[in-house]
């Protein structure tokens, strides 16, 4: 077994960490600017906002499973670099289209879809690369650092996006996201990692390898029962997330730059969650951390629906809801992702990660579309309440799985890829 340095001295992981951080920043800027462009510049309907949001996530639904099999055949680092270059070029088109006066909702949807396709391959490759850079007992800590960076960018990203939208224009702010993806590509290209050709799967065709990933998840006694509840959680919470900026901009009447500040403040909860993760898991155990943190975070979203009726306290309620959601959501995300990575044998990492991301991220565009459509018919606040209630049922489902009783993360299964049939 290869010897790995401690994370603080691991140059390969450090470059992945910084490259990911740059990409996280680009994601946060692009996400807020895309929503704001649709809402405030193009005056999109609630249903169109749902489609724009769904477009970036739809690739996980349609490409999530084959991407895992392909990534298991490819070297991870070049895959991540190419994906970042593609995201750089796609986002750079928006300000060009706006400057020449041809930007419309359809182009925003197309660019979002292209970014989503690139993100599928980047994310699957990234999750499969981490266990090659760190020891098994360092995976949770590595994910914690990456999640901490993600939460830091949840503060910096909206703040930077809001500042840029006030300084230049909303569409021109896409250039910042484009540049951060370029920086991420350069940093990740410099990761010192050996990816020998012998690790390329040779045990069947594409669909055979896809079936292996699905079969492993279905047969794994901890991951299998958790799989569907996590997918349902993803669908329902995305319905809440897609309506969050709509509530702020159209009901609370905040400006685009102020929205960036509000979301940045809310993200402080995610920072706290990332840094307290190890202590919380040690105290509660893996299973209870997953169930309790998801459920509490979902329930806290009710503050988003209360804010429009809170009068002078509307913004305070909106911020508190986002802080609590970010804190418990971060604890949940780190724990369930670390459990998945730790249980999976290396030859199946790409396929198993892709299977979960197919369910988790593939459910998101469905939630976004349903929330946008429902908001046009039921209203924004009633739809938000509906999706919060639905999200709580996922917490109940998680509590009924064997993983809910898990105290610590087990060692990975000593199986070969061919045994996934």
Automatic annotation (TrEMBL):
Residues that span the membrane, as ranges = 21-42, 54-71, 92-122, 160-183, 226-252, 258-277, 289-307, 313-334, 355-374, 380-400
Per UniProt, the keywords (alphabetical) are:
Cell membrane, Membrane, Transmembrane, Transmembrane helix
Q: What is the protein name given in its UniProt record?
A: MFS transporter
What Gene Ontology cellular component terms go with this record?
plasma membrane
Q: Where in the cell is it found?
A: Cell membrane
Major localization listed first in the record, in broad terms: membrane
Q: Name one Pfam family in it.
A: MFS_1
- The yes or no answer to whether the keyword S-adenosyl-L-methionine is present is no
Could you tell me one molecular function GO term of this UniProt entry?
transmembrane transporter activity
Per the UniProt record, the source organism is Schaalia canis
- Report membrane topology: Multi-pass membrane protein
